[in-house]
C-alpha cells in the first residue's frame, strides 16, 4: 500500500478517535406507563416524564369508587451523545421520544411499595415486578393493583420489613424516598372489590 494512502487511513482513524474521545453523554431517567381499568383493560391514562417530575402531576385519571385499576410503570435511563462543554437543552417530550438511546434499566425493590397514609384514595391490593427482574425481586418496573376509595393523591412508601427481605448488598443505587404516586378523581360508584390491602405493619 502506498505510504500516502496509509497515512490517509491513519489520519482518518485518529480524527474519528479524537472525535469520540471529545464526545460526552447527556443522561436522564424517565418513568412511563399506563393506568388501566382492570375490568376491561381500557387505558385510563398513559404517561411519561423525567423522574425528577412529581408523579402526581403526571399520573392523573378518573375512576368510579370501588373500581379496581392497574398502574404499570417502567423506569429507563436514556442518553444522547453531544460535543462541547454544555449539553443541549432538552424537554420532556424529547426524553420520552424514540430519539435518545436507552442505556440503563435501574433496579429497585418496587414490590415493597405500600400506601403511606392511613386513609389513602386507593388501596394497594397487590404489587408485582415488571421489566428486568433481579434474583432478590428488585425490578426495572412494577404493577400496582389499586381499589379506588375516594378522590385524592395516593402517596407511597417502601415497607421497611419488605426492604430487608429484598435487600441487595451489592447495590449502591439507593432507594427512592416516599413520594406522591398519582392523583385520582372519582365519578360514580361500583361494588367494592373483595381484595385485601397490602399492609406495612
Overall geometry: globular
Strand tally: 10
Number of helices: 4
Oligomer: single chain
Element pattern in H and E: HEEHEEHEEEEEHE
Low-confidence stretches: 4-19
Based on CA atoms alone, the radius of gyration comes out at 22 Å
Q: In total, how many domains does the architecture comprise?
A: 1
Cα distance, first to last residue? 76 Å
**Structural class from helices and strands?**
alpha+beta
Strand content range: 35-45%
Largest sheet descriptor: 6 strands, antiparallel
* Mean pLDDT value: 83
Instruction: Give the % helix.
Output: 10-25%
Overview of the molecule:
With 201 residues, the chain is of the alpha+beta class. It has one domain (24-189). The protein has 4 helices and 10 strands; from the N terminus they run H-E-E-H-E-E-H-E-E-E-E-E-H-E. Strands 1, 2, 4, 5, 7 and 8 form a 6-stranded antiparallel β-sheet that branches. Strands 3-10-9-6 form a 4-stranded mixed β-sheet. The termini are far apart. Mean pLDDT is 83; it is low at 4-19.
Provide a short characterization of the protein structure.
By secondary structure, the chain is of the alpha+beta class. The protein has four helices and ten strands, in the order αββαββαβββββαβ.
Which tags fit this structure?
single chain, about 200 residues, alpha+beta, six-stranded antiparallel beta sheet, 4 helices, globular
Amino acid at each position: 500500500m502506498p505510504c500516502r494512502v496509509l497515512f490517509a487511513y491513519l489520519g482518518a482513524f485518529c480524527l474519528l478517535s479524537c472525535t469520540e474521545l471529545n464526545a460526552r453523554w447527556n443522561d436522564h431517567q424517565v418513568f412511563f406507563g399506563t393506568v388501566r381499568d382492570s375490568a376491561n383493560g381500557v387505558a385510563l391514562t398513559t404517561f411519561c416524564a423525567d423522574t425528577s417530575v412529581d408523579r402526581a402531576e403526571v399520573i392523573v385519571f378518573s375512576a368510579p369508587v370501588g373500581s379496581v385499576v392497574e398502574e404499570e410503570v417502567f423506569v429507563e435511563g436514556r442518553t444522547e451523545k453531544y460535543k462541547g462543554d454544555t449539553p443541549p437543552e432538552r424537554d420532556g417530550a424529547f426524553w420520552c421520544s424514540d430519539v435518545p438511546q436507552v442505556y440503563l434499566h435501574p433496579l429497585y425493590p418496587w414490590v415493597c411499595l405500600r400506601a403511606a397514609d392511613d386513609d389513602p384514595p386507593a388501596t394497594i391490593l397487590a404489587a408485582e415486578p415488571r421489566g428486568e427482574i433481579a434474583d432478590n425481586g428488585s425490578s426495572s418496573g412494577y404493577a400496582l393493583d389499586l381499589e379506588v376509595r375516594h378522590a385524592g393523591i395516593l402517596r407511597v412508601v417502601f415497607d421497611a420489613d419488605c426492604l430487608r427481605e429484598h435487600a441487595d448488598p451489592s447495590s449502591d443505587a439507593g432507594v427512592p424516598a416516599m413520594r406522591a404516586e398519582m392523583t385520582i378523581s372519582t365519578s360514580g360508584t361500583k361494588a367494592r372489590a373483595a381484595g385485601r390491602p397490602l399492609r406495612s405493619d
